[in-house]
Amino acid sequence: MLESIQSLLDALPEGVVQVRGGVVSSCSERARQYLPRLASGEPVPDELALSEEDGGGTGVFSRGEETYSYTYSAAGGELLVLIRPASESTLSGAQLEGLACQLRTLLGDILAEVGPATAEGGSPVPAAAFGKTFHRLFRLLDNLELLQETVPFRPATMDLAGLCRHVEALAAPLLKEAGVLLEYRSRESGLLIPGDPALLQKLLLGLIANAARASEEGNVVLSLRRQGARAVLTVSHSGPPADGPHLNALLRPGVGGEFPLPGQGAGLGLSAARRIAALHGGSLLMEWGRSAPSAVVSLPTGPLDGKATVRTPELQRGGGLDPVLMELSDLLPAQVFELEGLD
User: Quick one: pLDDT band at residue 258, thresholds 50, 70, 90?
Assistant: First the structure.
């Protein structure tokens, strides 16, 4: 009987893993090709961020230069995980359509804001509205650049806990203007990892912005913990449960035919976060169950360069614009951009 079940698992086109109590109970040959450390009776590898609460999730992880996507469902303490190769940069039809819609909308906004000022006797340019639109446009282009084949990646020995505190200190007062409360929770005073601070800041702000949009009560929590040889970041919110297949489609470019509705955006944010996690040899999981969905990022804490000193490189990106304002531009009221220079 067990041999027939194993034969069935091996015949499936996707890698299959069954888990109970945090331990692998069975796995297919294809799954072992994707994750060689998979073995019956052994703990689940760190690359797979799983929760045994009834529900499920969809995510990505990288191993070497390869990236894989996975989905799992949990019921009665047992998990079924499906693993498949994932494309890092291919845009789906839905994302291309969303990108075109956003560009048309933003360019239309710029024309509407600047046009009256260029006419004879026109009124002054509304600087705040123009600044918001300008930041939104650069954010869209910045996300698009991250999905190119080659992305500048400058890892250093850095303090991830310090970066989280830095992000909270900069983003919380701005989000409060939009009615969103951001809270950072961690027992870690410091947590060193090899990482690119600018890219990880973008990842954190992007996930925080996504959570803030989905939260009905405006409460977003960023947390950090150490789990073995991994640093685990979680961004959660107080909104309602989300549609799992929709999250799965966002994390798996080229899968699913849902097109973004007006106001939903291009759907590039999660793909950009996924790419950043993959560049760091980490994983990104969108998890849902009885509560609102949460984003879980797992990053390796080593190897660290013993000769390197901890440093925080310049975090400016996006043509000199404030990266925090740029990442949160869809959420913030226009008046926040009144004093932000564009030079």
Answer: very low
Residue 199 CA to residue 163 CA, distance in Å, equals 11
In contact, 233 and 72? CB cutoff 8 Å = no
Of 269 and 257, more confident: 269
Widest Cα–Cα separation across the chain: 85
Q: Kindly indicate the confidence band of residue 86, based on its pLDDT and cuts at 50, 70 and 90.
A: confident
Instruction: Return d(Cα 74, Cα 290) in angstroms, integer.
Output: 12
> What pLDDT, on a 0 to 100 scale, did the predictor assign at position 213?
85
Placement of tokens 């079924």 in the chain:
80
- CB atoms closer than 10 angstroms to residue 301: 17
- Confidence (pLDDT) at 226: 95
**Which residues, 6+ apart, have CB-to-CB distance to 294 below 8 Å?**
211, 234, 235, 236, 237, 286, 287, 288
Q: Which of 325, 320, 326, 316 is nearest to 343 (CA)?
A: 320
- Is residue 77 helix, strand or coil? coil
The reported pLDDT for the residue numbered 48 is: 86
Does residue 266 carry a pLDDT above 90?
no
DSSP state of 43: B
How far apart CA 305 and CA 163 sit, in angstroms, is 19
Q: What are phi and psi of 264, to 5 degrees?
A: -80, -20
What would the two tokens of residue 311 be?
């440093």
d(CA 118, CA 114): 7
In 213-257, DSSP assigns E strands to 219-227, 230-237
Q: Is there a contact between 140 and 318 (Cβ–Cβ < 8 Å)?
A: no
Q: Write out the DSSP string of 158-193.
A: EEHHHHHHHHHHHHHHHHHHTT-EEEEEES-S--EE
Residue 37 CA: distances (Å) to CA of 42, 86, 151, 278: 9, 19, 29, 19
21 Rama sector, left if φ>0, alpha if ψ -120 to 50, beta otherwise? left
Confidence of residue 254 (pLDDT cuts 50, 70, 90): very low
Q: What is the pLDDT of residues 25-41, one digit of tens each?
A: 999 999 999 999 899 99
